[in-house]
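Standup notes
- DV: blocked on the single-chain target, sequence here:
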Amino acid sequence: MQIYILGIESSCDDTSAAVIRNDVICSNIIASQEVHKNFGGVVPELASRAHQQNIIPVIDTALKKANIQKNQLSAVAFTRGPGLLGSLLVGTSFAKAMALGLQIPLIEVNHLQAHIMAHFINNEGHTKPTPQFPFLCLTVSGGHTQIVYIKEGFDIQIIGQTIDDAAGETFDKAAKIMGLPYPGGPMIDDLAKQGDPKRFTFSRPVIQGLDFSFSGLKTSFLYFLRDRLKEDPDFIEKNKADLSASIQSTIIDILIQKLLMAANQTGIREIAIAGGVSANSGLRKALMDGRELYGWNTFIPAIQYSTDNAAMIAIAGYFKYLRGDFTNQSVAPFARG
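- DV (later): unblocked, structure below
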């Protein structure tokens, strides 16, 4: 039996639609919003307006690329939250209307759970290894930093999370301090490849257990540059690569050390990463190094499924469809998880 799920993702500033046939991706279309670069960050009102403009052509393109008609869809899955409320409302409203019009099931998906489920997406003619249950997943994005214990399917438990800022937000803030354009995380990643990660040191948080804290690191980075700029106004320009490498190395080391602690406490060696920051080359390498250093069996999502995308919504929707886990027309989005 062929099950076709349309996934709709609109949690932030990317409008995305994907079609999946069982667990095989057929299309994954993303429309990005360039307007936010002018403001150094996402402007919620502008994001929701752009979603309204993009959602119909994006879904139409996804269906055409998948070479199916909308009456072949088995269900519509959508991001219910967390995210920007205005953006989520656009995707939620469209999904509800489409499911109602086609008289097919409606499936709500948690954005963070979907990032984890991205590991189970397959491409046509290629089945890749997937994490075995139970496994641990470090979910890292601009808004969230969590260590998640996945017992089976959607039976998950957050065993560690940031108590203040997220790792992705720390990348972007550091980039902004250095005068790099938005989004800053990818810029730091590129510059870090040319720099010395041990050139500069910054204060690290001392947080007990598996929780994270990045606010102190951001402050340390800000004060460090403030003091150096007093001595040399061109300090940042002269040291961008080393600064990027040093701050990136510090963030990654904090993440991996907490992940190692979680692996040791649980005895789990199936280790995955997910979320937008999982696209960072330094973090991907650090996880791969865990194979040799700690005996981990590691899983890293494909780059196209790391950042926000509808393919991850569609695969989560597929597994929920198999369970008969549907929602109704009264469902409303939520901004915070």
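- Follow-up: The domain at 4-121+306-323 is CATH 3.30.420.40 (Nucleotidyltransferase; domain 5).
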